[in-house]
Every structure is written in C-alpha cells, then in structure tokens.
C-alpha cells in the first residue's frame, strides 16, 4: 500500500501518520527524516543537500526530488509500501513524484486528505502562551493556567500570533490546492473530516484505506 497524507498545520497529520504506520506497517517517509538520513549516509543527493543547508540556502527542488527518489528505490519500499508525509509541497514536486514512481515501477494507491476548517486551526495554533518567569507552556483553550491568571505574566512567540498563523495557513492552502486537484483528477483522494476525536479520524482513514485495496 503506497499512500500520501496531506493536511494543514495543526490538522493532526503527524498523529494520524504515526497511527497509519503502526497499523499497516508501511515505511514512513517524511521530508525531515529523509534529509537527515541522506546526509548521514552521505548519499549523492545528501551531500548536495548539505552543501546548500550549510550555506543557509534553500535546497532546490531537483535535490529534494532526488532524495525522495533515492529513498523510494530502497528495498524496504517494495516489501512494505510507504506513507509519504510532507512531500510533495508544490505542484512541481507532485509532477516530479509522478515521474519518480513511474521510473521505479511504483504507483500511488491513495491520498489521505485531512480536512479541518482553517478558522478552528487558527484558534488551535495561536492559543499557545508562555509564562515569562518559568518558561512553562500553556494553551488558552486546551491547557489554560489554573485559576484566574494575569495575561501580563505571559507572552506569545511571533510564530504563534494569530496573524502569523493565518498567513502560514494561507500559504499552505494556496500551495496544497493544486496538488489535491492533481490527485483528484486521478481519482485517488479520500477526504477525511479532521474535526473529530483522534480515534474517530483514524477509523475513517482505515475505512478509506480498506476501500483502496
């Protein structure tokens, strides 16, 4: 079973990816892990990626695509299948993935698309507050400080402020839309409602995967 999981930041993609890997025994291929492994193993693409990272530059698409191809060519993929997580991030990378899979004699069986209302994600992602003295982290909604608390004693990181979170989500939505559309045309997208309990989301994912077989 070869899968791709998609979803906005805060939609629970990481949690569900871990559950899919545990339940179905597929190889979890996340961008960060791939880069770290390629650089540690000093593969051709790993060495190239490190040369950009060491200079503080963005790794070009052709290098990222090359690292993905190296990983998908490894022997465990043919045995277990894979779950791609965090790639492709752009429509150009999606086209490159199509070519890579074709060249390796593989195919994508399905795309798990976890849908959550962006407004609820802003609340979820921008609620983090940090106590100025202790550095302890809380969440205004899901894990507030006990009792009445003075907001002046807490601060928010720039990344956690609602306007920053909304901008990040808007970028993700704009980048993700053409990728989802690309796979919809292939008829392999399963939309999963993410505004549910974790186990209920996973139950829907299991049903979607069963329908792919």
From TrEMBL:
Q: Which family does it belong to?
A: Belongs to the adenylate kinase family.
Sorted alphabetically, which InterPro entries does this protein's record hold? Adenyl_kin_sub (IPR006259), Adenylat/UMP-CMP_kin (IPR000850), Adenylat_kinase_CS (IPR033690), ADK_active_lid_dom_sf (IPR036193), P-loop_NTPase (IPR027417)
Q: Which HAMAP family match?
A: Adenylate_kinase_Adk
Biological process terms in GO annotation? AMP salvage
Q: Could you say which residues bind AMP here?
A: 31, 36, 57-59, 86-89, 93, 157, 168
* Complexes and interactors: Monomer.
Its annotated pathway reads: Purine metabolism; AMP biosynthesis via salvage pathway; AMP from ADP: step 1/1
Q: Which reaction does it catalyse?
A: AMP + ATP = 2 ADP
The answer to whether keyword Isomerase applies is: no
Which EC number(s) does UniProt give?
2.7.4.3
GO terms under cellular component: cytoplasm
Q: Report the locations given in the UniProt record.
A: Cytoplasm
Keywords, ordered alphabetically: ATP-binding, Cytoplasm, Kinase, Nucleotide biosynthesis, Nucleotide-binding, Transferase
Q: What is this protein called?
A: Adenylate kinase
Q: SUPFAM superfamilies from the entry?
A: Microbial and mitochondrial ADK, insert 'zinc finger' domain (SSF57774), P-loop containing nucleoside triphosphate hydrolases (SSF52540)
Question: Which enzyme type, at the first EC level?
Answer: transferase
Checking Gene3D superfamilies in the record gives: P-loop containing nucleotide triphosphate hydrolases
Metal-binding as a keyword of this entry, yes or no, is: no
């Amino acid at each position: 079973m070869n899968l791709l999981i998609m979803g906005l930041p805060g939609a629970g993609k990481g949690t569900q990816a871990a559950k899919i890997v545990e339940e179905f025994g597929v190889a979890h291929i996340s961008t960060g892990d791939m880069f770290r492994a390629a650089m540690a193993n000093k593969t051709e693409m790993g060495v190239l990626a490190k040369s950009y990272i060491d200079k503080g530059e963005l790794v070009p698409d052709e290098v990222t695509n090359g690292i993905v191809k190296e990983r998908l060519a490894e022997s465990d993929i043919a045995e277990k299948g894979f779950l791609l997580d965090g790639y492709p991030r752009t429509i150009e990378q999606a086209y490159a993935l199509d070519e890579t899979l074709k060249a390796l004699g593989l195919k994508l069986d399905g795309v798990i698309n976890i849908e959550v209302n962006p407004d609820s994600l802003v609340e979820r992602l921008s609620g983090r507050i940090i106590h100025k003295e202790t550095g302890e982290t809380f969440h205004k909604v899901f894990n507030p400080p006990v009792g009445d608390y003075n907001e002046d004693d807490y601060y928010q990181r720039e990344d956690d402020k609602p306007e920053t979170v909304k901008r990040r989500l808007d970028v993700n939505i704009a980048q993700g839309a053409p990728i989802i559309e690309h796979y919809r045309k292939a008829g392999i997208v399963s939309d999963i409602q993410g505004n549910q309990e974790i186990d209920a989301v996973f139950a829907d994912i299991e049903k979607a995967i069963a329908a792919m077989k």
